[in-house]
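User: For my dataset I need records formatted as: sequence, then structure tokens, nothing else. Please produce one.
Assistant:
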Amino acid sequence: MTTTTPALSAGSADAADWIWPLDLARYDRRALLTHAESKALGALGIEQVRRLGLTPAAAPRRLVEPLAHARDCLRWAPGTGHQRRFARDAAGLVLVRCGELGRSYWGWSDQDWADLIDRSGAEFRRRWGGQIGPNARPFVIAYAYLLGGFTAFEQVGRFQRPTLAHRVFGESAVDAAVGKVLAVLGDWGYQRRPSRLTSAVCQILLLNRSPRLEALSTPALDAVRASAAMQESEWASDLHGIHRAVAALGHADPPPRPRHGPGPSAIEGATGYWANWVERWHATSTLTPGGCGARLGPCFAVVAVARDGFADRDDQAGVGIDDDLVVGGVPVVLGLRGDGVVAGGDQSAVHDQHSVLAEPTAGPEREQRADVVDDPVGRRLGHTEQRGELP
């Protein structure tokens, strides 16, 4: 007899009490289909699943029951009967695909799941018309996550991380974890949009397959950082700050210090195209003899730093790049000396009270100024080593 955790309401589970809802070891997880299974799945249609439900009358028991259990383990908010129907349809699509591939979903690769989910969703909607196309796809992702161990999110395009986390882990467990992290970041003065940080934390929880912040150990966070799903996501630049918050809560060691000193710092959160142009401009600019790197005084300065608000649109006046550029783990906006930079849509220009953006001077004074960073939000002036201390 296969056991599952009963379906819970959206707010009934706390992270401390959370356990993985399915015991996969109890299922018959053979990848190969028997002749009878192959014949039954080959004749299966979505209307049959709708008529008979997720029962052995609709499809082979060893394949339909785990899907039914996974559906029942999802956390459902009140008034979501229509969502349950979409979840049933999604399970039917998984069963139909088993017949097409000639093997059970227990033997699917990440690519097999990704092909069904469809990166853009356009092919998924084209093949499955009506209400199935736009509404069943999130539940296919949930089945892939619960039954297939799927976390190759970089292969499936956009979807709502908070929604998946709420369905799998429970709303209260996820919101409690997110709230603790955002509280720490807020105390440090982070001005990222709460919705963005919520999605980033949910992405990390999903990749670690647990809503418990205690499970985000140093090795776990290192694994998240190394994953393609994190590196290729829009939240890659948020991981450093979230890691620091988790460390401040006592669950992990602090993240590796951002690299500073001679040589270019790593540029994260920007496309390779932009990163290459920044490095090329720094090496070849004719603003000073021999390029920017040839003399002690920098030709450009960091004029907006972590804890500032950033423009969210590339076309906002005074900002050349958005808040996704991070150098050495610190969100920055670069500008030529003397340029005015708007720190955010509702903030005034960054004040150059320490003359970081002034024209270069000669001699020791200029040499000293090369390592200075203007931090208008923290109201402090520090050397490059202090940048790693910014949250």
